[in-house]
């Protein structure tokens, strides 16, 4: 049933996306949203989590003369057949996906291109399976690890594309004129993927302007790195952690905790770093 729902959402999306004469996807509008359901499971030590997370196109910006869409706190751009994200560490683009038809993992459905990226059953590492659809973005992201035995899955279940909503629409923010509704409560979401190696994303919501700290701790309660320490406006945020401490040193595998702190809210969640 869940597989059929996913296929239904994707087919509806495909029917809604228009393309220009050059084959590039129509520009996505500010306020577009993608809701993903993710599940994480580890057998030893045992861990299971299921949750939903939202990616929202908040605004546009220009970096090094190139226009990027700001998706939560990530910067992405698209050329005619490729999607890139801006890498802060080396001040450059990193290609996420190429829809070039010269690759045998690109499938054509009429005007639409789907790109499958996979590395399956590597004996000592595990594997992954990702699907991207041109004009939509990520629709499936499944990962599994051999040591320890763990898996993460992420599937698109709802979205708003240029004013049209599909899938489980009750999970999308309700629009009022040109302004999306604001978060009603402080929320700290479970990181994804979890377990993870080498990076993970931590998302949270602020119902009011707040002085925010987002801190990673080890099991002894010692601060590893402070990911956020500033005033932030009402909204939803996603922060990456690359498994490094404040000095840029890679941390060993194991359990870590992350805490969101404001004047009116404090919450801590657990995550597992694999090495």
Can you give a write-up of this model?
With 275 residues, the chain is mainly beta. The chain has 1 helix and 21 strands. The chain has 2 domains: 1-181, no CATH class; 182-275, Immunoglobulin-like. The protein is 5% helix and 56% strand. Strands 1, 2, 3, 4, 5, 6, 7, 8, 9, 10, 11 and 12 form a 12-stranded antiparallel beta sheet that branches. A hairpin with a 2-residue loop joins strand 3 and strand 4.
Question: What are the salient characteristics of this protein?
Answer:
12-stranded antiparallel sheet, 4-stranded antiparallel sheet, 275 residues, disordered N terminus, mainly beta, Immunoglobulin-like
Bulk shape: globular
Averaging pLDDT over every residue, what do you get? 78
By DSSP (H or I, 4+ residues per run), the number of helices equals 1
Strand content: over 45%
The arrangement of helices and strands along the chain is HEEEEEEEEEEEEEEEEEEEEE
User: How many independent structural domains?
Assistant: 2
Helix share, percent: under 10%
Radius of gyration: 19 Å
Largest sheet geometry: 12 strands, antiparallel
- Would you report the number of β strands? 21
Distance between the termini: 35 Å
